[in-house]
Amino acid sequence: MASPWGVRSEELNFSSPLQFAKWLVEPFPLTQQANFEVEEFRKYGISLCYVLWSCLIEDLNSVYTNHLDANSGHPSLSDLQEPLLGDFVVYVDAACKDLRSAAGIITTNSNSALVEAFSVALQAKSPLEAEAWALLHAVHRCVRLGRHNVNFVLDCQSLVYGIKQRKTPDWKMAAVFELLLDGLDRIPLASVSWIPRSRNEIAHRLAKWSFNSSLFGFFTAEELAPLVAF
């Protein structure tokens, strides 16, 4: 099938991606045709490549996540879902839309009593990056207060697995991931655990409420009562 510019895919033959990219910028011999809208063609071609690349990355991330099981040699969900032990258990979640995000962070003690709860406004390019920034805020809070034996829990499986392997799950968030590893290394007996969303509802509701209301900061148990129960 011919394109609006008269380009037939079966007639295209490139030896490398670089050759194809150069052709998109200067599509010879199409540029020799009368009334050929070269700028419009370039915009279309580059936009199409961007969409295809984004779909490829999304599919790869999906495959990466779906293969975190025992059959692939990676940790299963039961392996990642560790008992919530520690002097402090910090629940972390993020709510996001477009480039705007909010972190919900709730700290409990070993008796599951509320220690503190706060939310932070974030800017992130993806939900995964938002989760990483949310966890980083929680980690830095514990570093400042000198807390140790802290168990950070979240429902983002790929981020938890990446931390355990000390390998970023997405190269686009490598910078925040390195800060995250550095912060965790500064907390004695720090651990990161995966839990299902149903067990992380308290942090999820706080993040969502702060995102929708644009209210951020520290909150008391009384202020959070309509949202969560401890």
TrEMBL record:
Pfam families: RVT_3
Record CDD domains: RNase_H_like
InterPro entries noted in UniProt: RNase_H-like, RNase_H-like_dom_plant, RNaseH-like_sf, RNaseH_domain, RNaseH_sf
Highest taxon listed in the record's lineage: Eukaryota
SUPFAM superfamilies: Ribonuclease H-like (SSF53098)
GO terms, molecular function: nucleic acid binding; RNA-DNA hybrid ribonuclease activity
All copies of domain RNase H type-1, residue ranges: 93-209
Protein name per its UniProtKB record: RNase H type-1 domain-containing protein
Native source organism of the sequence: Cannabis sativa
